[in-house]
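Input structure tokens:
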């Protein structure tokens, strides 16, 4: 049954709009989860391929052997939320979601990378450029995936 019809039926009942409220929540949570999963998968692939060649080769001893789970998880949870606010929620098309996401990625990653280049001895322009480009790709892909998930969900 179409969600609008279901919502109209529920409005006539005493527990009115419970399914409509549920769908409104799902229309926010599911795109967030999809964005988060896509980002985690893509970043895991990128880091497994590039960490030795790009990051460890350049930064050497300042990197720990693995990673700290709590700050890493915190980053992904917060960043995926930012993608929802600044890209997915504003996009009116997949192309726009991709563009807004990529722009958000450039700004966010440039903040980190250019600050590092300005303050860390072994940080280079090439490393900043590589990481900023990756931020644009990763964030654009996450935003596009979140937008696609939002589009397939029924509207209330």
């Amino acid at each position: 049954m179409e969600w609008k019809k279901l919502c109209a039926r529920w409005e006539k009942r005493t527990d009115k709009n419970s399914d409509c409220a549920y769908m409104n929540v799902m229309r926010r949570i599911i795109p967030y989860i999809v964005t988060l999963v896509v980002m985690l998968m893509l970043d895991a692939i990128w880091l497994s391929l590039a960490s030795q060649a790009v990051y460890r080769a350049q930064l050497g001893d300042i990197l720990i052997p693995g990673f700290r789970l709590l700050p890493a998880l915190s980053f992904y949870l917060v960043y995926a939320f930012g993608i929802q606010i600044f890209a997915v929620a504003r996009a009116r098309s997949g192309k726009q979601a991709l563009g807004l996401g990529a722009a958000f990625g450039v700004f966010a990653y440039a903040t980190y990378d250019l600050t590092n280049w300005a303050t860390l001895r072994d940080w280079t322009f090439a490393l900043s450029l590589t990481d900023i480009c990756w931020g644009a790709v990763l964030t654009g892909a996450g935003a596009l995936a979140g937008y696609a998930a939002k589009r397939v969900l029924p509207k209330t």
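The helical segments are 3-11, 18-59, 69-88, 94-119, 125-152. The mean pLDDT is 89.
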